[in-house]
Amino acid sequence: MFTDKNIVLIVSGGVAAYKSAIFARLLMKQGANVKVVMTQAATEFVTPKTFEALTQHPVVTDLFDAHNESMIAHVSLADWADYIFVVPATANILAKMAAGIGDDAASSVLLARHTPVIVAPAMNVNMYENPATQRNLKTLREDGVIIIEPAEGMLAEGYAGKGRLPEPDEILALADLKLRQQTGRLAGKKVVVSAGGTVEPIDPVRFITNRSSGKMGYALAQAAAEQGADVTLVSSSELPAPVGVTMVPVQSARDLLAAMTERFDDTDVAIMAAAVSDYRVATPADQKMKKNADHAGLTIDLVENPDILATLGQQKTTQYLVGFAAETQDLLTYAQNKLEKKNADMLVANDVSKAQVGFGHDTNEVTLLQRNAALEKLPLQSKLALARDIMNRIASQVEGK
Ligand code: PMT
Question: Quick one: pLDDT at residue 243?
Fold first, then answer.
């Protein structure tokens, strides 16, 4: 989101101002051009020289700065900016923003702005919880300002509470996500993805599962979040959650069915990347099963699990439904059959007998089958690159609907 973008970074006066130097550096590492505006109070915590050295641009601290090239620096800075960040944002600058006051360089840039503004409040917990601050934050949200919530933790005053500035990399990741939620191709859409192999108990210590790692489903969830969707990932895998994605942990196929059907009515896109066990143990034992004394073999009765994709296919109204097919032979015949039988809109077929394809790998190669469209082969690539390609195809189908 920030490569080649012009960013005005406003630093207001709080102890956390030192983190904003690291934040400026991170923005520049992303390829952004950064110009800094400081309030007078901020200069008590960090000197403008620090930011000048980092950004290679003069820092604006004064509305009527004689050294500034522009007579009306606040307006030209606001015009120049693709995005404006306020990091850290004190209660004072939030109040000025909410009231539309422009009595110094920082607040005047904010008053003249016409591009997205992202603020990261940081202050004492009592100042943060003060009704006036909460009222101001509500006003700013209604005005379309993006707020990065402060974190809980030890404050400069020596006691814990909400008000700590999140770490610069977290601010960057959350800002990126929230901007995409305003401008991405899937902005305003709800996407639910399932990932990982289901876990069917045999007894309290044993279970039936498969080789799915969850990587493909997680990559799809990340790709959907990158396009601005509100994403829920229903997963049995314990991989770290992609930024901004809501996790719903599940184990068995029946857990997964419940989690998917509960959300399906309120979903725009549902993607079944999970490897669901077709069968489960009819009656899992309550206690750990013991070896037979006579060394006889063991037979476990299995019963069929519900077919989740087919169930969603039957319930489908406006949702765009995507299934996968993991095959070791006759890939396209089986995949076409699944597309039709399960009433999906898209089937992503992977031949898991091939090297580097499917279960557990970091790469995958698939063929996309869609109704009334030609087959499309997506070559072997990382699961994330592939997920981005798949999500672009999905976005083309649901965008604007
Ligand atoms: O998790 P990774 O290690 O990254 O591996 C990725 C993957 C190989 C698991 C993934 O790319 C994949 O192919 N997922 C689907 C695996 C699978 O169960 O395929 P299937 O052909 O058996 O099932 C067809 C479709 O029906 C799938 O969308 C599956 O989620 C769904 N299904 C299957 C059985 C069942 N009882 N209910 C279902 O909903």
Answer: 87
What is the CA(350)–ligand 1 centre distance, in A? 10
In this prediction, residue 68 carries a pLDDT of 60
- Give the fold, CATH level 3, of 6-182: Rossmann fold (3.40.50)
- pLDDT at residue 117, as a whole number: 97
**Contact 343 CB / ligand 1 (< 6 Å):** no
Residue 23 labeled ligand binder = no
Residue closest to 74 by CA, chosen among 28, 108, 119: 108
- pLDDT of the residue at 69: 60
pLDDT, position 201: 97
Residue 58 marked as a ligand binder: no
Q: What pLDDT score does 74 carry?
A: 84
Question: How is residue 60 annotated by DSSP?
Answer: B
| Closest C-alpha among 118, 166, 170 to residue 145 | 118
- Please tell me the pTM assigned to this model: 0.87
CATH 3.40.50.10300 fits 190-399, yes or no: yes
Q: How far is the CA of 83 from the centre of ligand 1 (A)?
A: 41
Q: What is the pLDDT of residue 71?
A: 60
Residues of the chain with pLDDT under 70: 66-72
Sequence-distant (≥ 6) Cβ neighbours of residue 179 within 8 angstroms? 1, 83, 116, 118, 146
308 is in an annotated binding site: yes
Question: 11 in ligand 1 pocket by Cβ < 6 Å?
Answer: no
Determine which one of 33, 210, 337, 364 is catalytic: 210
To the query of whether residue 210 is one of the catalytic residues in this protein, the response is yes
- How far is 238 from 271, CA to CA, in rounded Å? 19
Q: Which ligand 1 atom is nearest residue 195's CA? A: 1
Same fold, 6-182 and 190-399: yes
